[in-house]
Design brief:
- One of its GO terms (molecular function) is oxidoreductase activity.
- Pfam families: AurF.
- This is Para-aminobenzoate N-oxygenase AurF.
- InterPro entries: AurF/CmlI, Ferritin-like_SF, RNR-like.
- The protein has a single domain, classed as Ribonucleotide Reductase, subunit A.
- The relative contact order is 0.15.
- Helix 1 packs across helix 5, helix 4 packs parallel to helix 6 and helix 7 packs parallel to helix 9.
- It has twelve helices and no strands.
- By secondary structure, the chain is mainly alpha-helical.
- The structure holds fe (ii) ion (FE2) (2 copies).
- One fe (ii) ion binds next to helix 5 and helix 8.
Amino acid sequence: MTTILPSGTNRATNKAPVDRQALSTRLLGSAAKKSYDPVVDIDWSAPVPEDLYGLSPEWSTLYGTPLWDRLDHSERVTLTIHEYCSISGIGIWFEHLLMQLVLRDIYGDDPAQPHVQWALTEIADECRHSVMFARTAQTFGAPSYGPPPALLKLGKAYAARADGPAAYAAILVAEEILDIFQRDLMKDERVQPLTRATSQIHVVEEARHMRFAREEVARRTPELSSWQLRKHRTLVAACAAIVAENLVQPQVYAAVGLDPEEARAAARGNEHYNARLRDASAGLVSFLRDVGLIAGQSERLWKRAGLL
Ligand SMILES: [Fe+2]
Ligand SMILES: [Fe+2]
């Protein structure tokens, strides 16, 4: 039976829509109380322990495969450090894109409005995160992993054009998947202190970004015409597929002497890793489904990306 909600009710939360300015004011207050400056809040000169993983082994793309079984402990440590640096490097790329999306969204708005000041605060958070992730790779002695050139180009075009729900949903896709992943890392004692510290900072500050993005998506999706809705669904599904596919770049496998293509094929077929990614996306998928951004044809794209 279809439930009729009072007009203006947010389909994702079954609650009346949250006022954008009231929410922004609240988020600004929370940011003033608890924000970090990783350049000074992290001890960058602390030694890197030799025996701790870069990320929880169960989050390694190869965990549970014959290739993983062939690696000794120190190779597993090296692999997981490079995997964490790749995920952070893709995070930097994504942050650079979403900063453009957010800045374009508020361009020309009255800066006295809380939502503009919140957007600028979010962009400032992302600037600090990108520096933090860049330094993490440097400290671990890993290269600056990033997307392949074709994807760099595609991202630039997307950041220049995307708007509305598809822009905020793209932001959410990356933030929510990384959030679940980093919540695991920050409390795992087998993991490097630097991974845990960067994860903790990111989890605290991203919680506010996700809150804002969810409200933007929920408020703006009902405003789309039916053809726009189809377009936004496809764009969001494509973003999700690209994020899931590119978190760990194949060059990381060379760090432990594995053939990148062979290891990438093993990672793609690794049901253990795929299930973890699917679990990490469950909350996001259910939200996007409730709000109407996953439905119809786009379901198939989500399935093909292994996220449904
Ligand atoms: Fe971030
Ligand atoms: Fe963010």
